[in-house]
Write a structure and sequence with these properties.
There is one protein chain. About 45% of the residues lie in helices and about 15% in strands. It has helices at about 5-25, 35-40, 60, 80-85, 95-100, 105-115, 115-125, and strands at about 55, 65, 70-75, 75-80, 130-135. The protein has a five-stranded mixed beta sheet. The protein is an alpha+beta fold. Strand 3 (about 70-75) and strand 4 form a beta hairpin. The protein is built from seven helices and five strands, in the order ααβαβββααααβ. The chain has two domains: about 5-30; about 55-135, Cytochrome b5-like heme/steroid binding domain (Flavocytochrome B2, Chain A, domain 1), CATH 3.10.120.10. Bound molecules: protoporphyrin IX containing FE (HEM). Protoporphyrin IX containing FE (HEM) binds near residues 100 and 121.
């Protein structure tokens, strides 16, 4: 290979290596959803949209009022918290959650979690448990 061609090759290679390096440094971190949530800016504390569209009356919710069969309603969505209660983990203890089984817990839920990041994390944690909307 001639010398100018060699130099051109080295320069192209160097630029490519620097380019890849810059891309790696600037690319978003591949974090777990929970970590990504922790660093994401707060734009709203509106609950995420429920994925299930089955509509339940409050009387349906009221039929699930024990810790082994626990539903509650918050902000127009109905959640089955039975599996959540089974995990045994809630920052403020599980009794406070169990008390809300079978109820429209909009006020206690909102009061318990306040506003901002805490509320956002609590609403996000509800998402997997949605079973429908409140009629
Ligand atoms: C009506 C029932 C509930 C009440 C009254 C309540 C109340 C509370 C309270 C007082 C805290 C501690 C806040 C603090 O650190 O100052 C808390 C934390 C939390 N709750 Fe609840 N909670 C309820 C139900 C739930 C449910 C059903 C979930 C999720 C499925 C949930 C998710 C969370 C999370 C993720 C935190 C930690 C927030 C953080 O500090 O990042 N809560 N809750």
């Amino acid at each position: 290979m001639k010398r100018p061609a060699l130099i051109t090759g080295i320069v192209i290679l160097a630029v490519a290596i620097i380019g890849v390096f810059v891309l790696i440094i600037r690319s978003p971190q591949t974090t777990s959803p929970a970590t990504a949530l922790a660093v994401s800016p707060i734009t709203t504390t509106t609950p995420p949209t429920a994925s299930s569209t089955t509509a339940y009356a409050l009387t349906d919710v009221a039929n699930h009022n024990t810790k082994t069969d626990c539903w509650f309603a918050v902000d127009g969505s109905v959640y089955n918290l039975t599996n959540y209660i089974e995990t045994g983990f809630h920052k403020a203890g599980m009794d406070i959650v169990i008390k809300s089984c079978g109820t429209n817990a909009i006020q206690t839920f909102a009061q318990g979690h306040g506003k901002g990041r805490k509320a956002q994390r609590a609403y996000e944690a509800l998402v997997p448990f949605v079973v429908g909307t409140l009629k």
